[in-house]
Amino acid sequence: MRVDRFLSNLPRFNRKQVRLLLVEKRVRVDGTIVSDPHAEVLEFSRVEVDDEVLQVGKPARYFMLHKPPGCVSATRDPQHPTVLDLIHEADKNDLHIAGRLDFNTTGLMLITNDGTWSRRLTQPQTKLPKVYYVETEQEITADYAITFAKGLYFAFEDLTTQPAELVVLGAKSARLSIVEGRYHQVKRMFGHFDNKVLRLHRERMGPLLLDDALKPGEYRPLSDEEIRLI
Ligand code: URA
Predict the structure, then answer these.
(1) Coil, helix or strand for 100?
(2) 101 CA distance to ligand 1 middle (Å)
(3) Which of 126, 188, 194, 222 is the least buried, fewest Cβ under 10 Å from its Cβ?
């Protein structure tokens, strides 16, 4: 929310007073004086006017999990274990998954309570590559890379996928980089060639790589540097 709106939503300031507070440089967001009425205030921001704290700001949390097969990318499921069951932290209920994976897909999963951060990571517009290691039932031929680079038409959504890069690693294995996360996207792309995906593992999301020290089912908090990369 814009800082001017945040302040004028409080019963104690009207719009004119808010303008004045900003011009007089009496407002600080996360310790920095702001005078721009458009400056952003998040639920994580500390907001002060003079020396009074108006919002403490809740801690933003970011985790990297190595998703094992056989668990659901959801916060709750009536039948199966979920990735959130693997996270042992207080206040788990405000966490969400940035970019879901299918039940048997393994690999990098990012979990946070910061919606702005997770949107930057997953929105197709930001074009951050999501890199998957893929094993298939049938051989992967040279025409796959050409078709994936052109984009594939998905009738259900009535869209053409953004160009994707395929590097063939072996007769039935490849590394695929896509910038979107459409429903079952990788399986549907290989499905175009009637080739079933037998193993799917996400290695990377944008600049964030799955830490090899994490065994399936393990997680760790992201470092400040990793958080800033997104
Ligand atoms: N594409 C798929 O088909 N499944 C996943 O889990 C991720 C991408």
Answers:
(1) coil
(2) 6
(3) 194
Domain count, the chain: 2
* Phi, psi dihedrals of residue 224, rounded to the nearest 5°: -60, -40
Q: Which domain holds residue 70?
A: 62-224
Catalytic annotation present for 143: no
Give per-residue burial for 188-224: e unless 16+ CB within 10 Å, then b: ebbeebebebeebbbebbbebebeeeeeeeebeebee
Helix (H) or strand (E) holding 211: none
User: What is the token pair recorded at 149?
Assistant: 């680079």
| Ligand 1 center from residue 74 Cα (angstroms) | 14
- CATH code, domain with 140: 3.30.2350.10
Query: Measured between alpha carbons, how far is 130 from 140 in angstroms, rounded to an integer?
Result: 20
229 inside domain? no
Q: Compute, in angstroms, the gap from residue 16 CA to the centroid of ligand 1.
A: 51
Specify whether 46 is located in the same domain as 75. Answer: no
77 and 11, same structural domain? no
Q: Which of 102, 158, 194, 224 is catalytic?
A: 102
